[in-house]
Design goal:
Residues 62-87, 106-125 are annotated as: Disordered. Residues 112-125 have a biased composition (Basic residues). With 193 residues, the protein is an all-alpha fold. The chain folds into 2 domains: 4-66 and 80-113, no CATH class; 122-192, no CATH class. Helix content is 67%, strand content 0%. It has 7 helices and no strands. It has helices at residues 4-7, 17-32, 36-57, 83-113, 122-134, 145-165, 170-192. Helix 2 runs antiparallel to helix 3 (36-57), helix 3 (36-57) packs antiparallel against helix 4 and helix 5 (122-134) packs parallel to helix 7 (170-192). It starts with a helix and ends with a helix.
Length: 193
Amino acid sequence: MTIEKLQKLKLDAVKPETLQKAVKDLLEDYNEATDKETFNKIAKDNIEKVFSLVEKLAPDAIVKEKKNPEPKPKGKEEKKLSKDTKKELDALSEGIKQCRIKIRKYNEEKRKGKPQKPKPKRHEKIKKHFISIGNLIPPNLKENLEVQKEAEKILLRGYREIINAFRINTIHVKEGVEAIKDKYDEIEEKIKK
């Protein structure tokens, strides 16, 4: 059995709430998992247990592939949970917790093998923000060369002032200025064509 059967369930029809929470937890964990196949291997037992409980306690939640749905009898009372079912649900929730722990460990081990991205430096963040501000020019003025040149002058001046106010090394100022100029050179070339 795979997670697809759980994904097809009508979650609103799954009763009791503890079972519904177990289904939602499994689906959330699956959506967060980076390696879906490994998740299926680790959580296979839990998925089967949850689905079997759904079949017992909430058969209405299972979406049937038939075109003509069967009419539901009116006045059907909600089934009460037996003590055995509650014990199963409690054991199942423990199983889900264990499954989550296994998945977290697996993801941590996977991340350890990959190199971490270095955090962007302050001057890089400032440069990116100034470039993104330049992208906010309204669409009707994007083709206007005068507006583009004026925006470039303002952004360069503002960038230099911010870098000087924060007392960041002048080498980094040159990198940012070049990035902003390159961005606007590309825009000017597009406009001239």
